[in-house]
Amino acid sequence: MVSDLVLTSEITCPHCGHIRQETMPTNACQFFYECQGCHKLLKPLPGDCCVFCSYGTVKCPQCNSGSVHSSGFDSSDSSRHSTEGMPRPAEVE
């Protein structure tokens, strides 16, 4: 049940170390995140479905609820990510 899940996570930027508490979406994995410290665009590490699973203190609700299996997940499988309505950056570092 989604209401039993923790919906906040602290994301730590691997570039500058900036930490910020964020609310995680419950209906999709968040593939991009702009650091508020250095403004670098973060994306998941290989094998992770989203930035919360890679850089957060709490994994995303999809992984915590069991709807996405986090081990061995291929983050390049775009069919499992909903990015509808999200802006696409011109260049991802």
Folded structure, characterized:
- This protein has 93 residues and is an alpha+beta fold.
- It has one domain (2-80).
- It contains two helices and four strands.
- It has helices at residues 51-55, 61-65, and strands at 8-12, 19-23, 33-34, 41-42.
- The chain has a two-stranded antiparallel sheet. It has a two-stranded antiparallel sheet with strand order 3-4.
- Strand 3 (33-34) and strand 4 form a beta hairpin.
- The radius of gyration is 13 Å and the shape is globular.
Quick summary of this structure?
11% of the residues lie in helices and 15% in strands.
Q: Radius of gyration over alpha carbons?
A: 13 Å
N- and C-termini, Cα separation: 35 Å
Strand order of the largest sheet: 1-2
Overall mean pLDDT stands at 78
Number of helices: 2
The global form is globular
List the domain count as a whole number.
Answer: 1
Helix content: 10-25%
* SSE arrangement, N to C: EEEEHH
How much of the residues is beta strand, in percent?
A: 15-25%
Low-confidence stretches: 68-87
Overall structural class, as computed from helix and strand content, comes to alpha+beta
What is the number of E strands? Answer: 4
How is the main sheet built? 2 strands, antiparallel
